[in-house]
Structure formats: C-alpha cells, structure tokens
Amino acid sequence: MAKQAPQDGANSAVPKPRATRRVNKPRAAAVPVVSKSAAAAAAKGKTTYPFVSDPARAANMRSNRRTDTKPEIALRTALHAMGYRYRKDFRLDLPLRRVRPDIAFTSRKVAVFVDGCFWHACPDHGSKPKNNEWYWSPKLAKNVERDRAADEALRQAGWTVVRLWEHVPLADAVDQVIAAVGNPRHVGKPPSLP
C-alpha cells in the first residue's frame, strides 16, 4: 500500500528537528543575594546589614511568616471548634504602645501569643545562629525585650496575657487559654465536640 501525501499541504520531505541534548555547564560560585539598600550600604563601606552566605538560607528566612503559623492556626481551629470567638492579629492601641496579639478575646481582655522558639529565644529549643552572629544576637534579644514591654503594656491596660511556645502540645495550649478566658458564650445550642 502506498503512503498518501499529507492533506494540509505541509512538506513531508522536511525532516523534524532532532531533540538536542542539554549540556550541563559548570556552575559559577554562588553570588550572595543582596538587596539594593544593602548593596548601596556596602558600596559606602557600611556593613550594617548581614550579607547572605547562602541563597537557599535567604529564601528560607524570607518565607517565615509573621502571622498564621502552623501552631497558631491549630490553636485557633481548636478554640473555634469549641465555640470560642476571637480576633486574630488584632492591633490594640494601648496608652504605652501598640500591640498585636496572635489571638485577642476583646470582650474578656485576654491576649494570646504563640511564640516561635527561634524568634523569641526559647530557653529549651531556641538556637543561636552561627553566621552573622553580630546581627542575630542583638535582634533576638530585642525581640524578647519587646515581648516583655508588650506584656507590661497589656497588663497596665487591664488585659490578661497568655504566652505559649510553639512546641507546647495543642491540648495543653487549649487548656491554658480556656483557664484565662473561661467558658465560651453560645448563642443557642453549643456545638458538639468530636
């Protein structure tokens, strides 16, 4: 049987291009990821910002969240399932300072913070970075200092403060929050617990 010519008028005599094999080129040394402001400071001879030693580490640090961390979401979900209603990441303009608790029960004046072990220097699990130690040690110490100042401002404004580490088991965290808040207010029938 003879082959038929293509119907669309394409030239079948032209061969298809062959797939080319990609040759891996040797990689150049990793260039530090530096922002424009850090590069400008370095050009002036200032080293006020830590320069990144590893681009993968820089991407990892940039991906850290200020709100909606996994332990915080788990606590909020458990409290909501039990009938508690709250504000998340709610800004409180207090006389001494502004504070943003992770979970705020505004009518009962209870502020809940779920602190990360690294960022808030947990005595059990907090680690000290080895790179750019001159930058990280004062930063982490300032975070702890800011936490204490926020706690004091909240207490002076009549709020109860609950601070939880991210490594605290969920059941213990829920118990601590319930002890501070009390029973949830239900409109109608309370939800059934699983």
Short description:
The chain has 194 residues and is of the alpha+beta class.
Compute the CA-based radius of gyration.
28 Å
Question: Helix segment count?
Answer: 5
Average pLDDT, to the nearest integer? 80
Q: Please state the oligomeric state of the protein chains shown.
A: single chain
Summing up helix and strand content along with how strands pair, one would put the structural category as alpha+beta
Biggest beta-sheet profile:
4 strands, mixed
What does it look like?
Helix content is 33%, strand content 11%. Strand 4 and strand 5 form a beta hairpin. It has 194 residues and is an alpha+beta fold. Strands 1-4-5-6 form a 4-stranded mixed sheet, sandwiched between helices. It has a two-stranded antiparallel sheet with strand order 2-3. It is built from 5 helices and 6 strands. The protein has a domain of 114 residues: VSR Endonuclease (Endonuclease, Chain A), CATH 3.40.960.10. The chain starts with 35 loop residues before the first helix and ends in a 13-residue tail after the last helix.
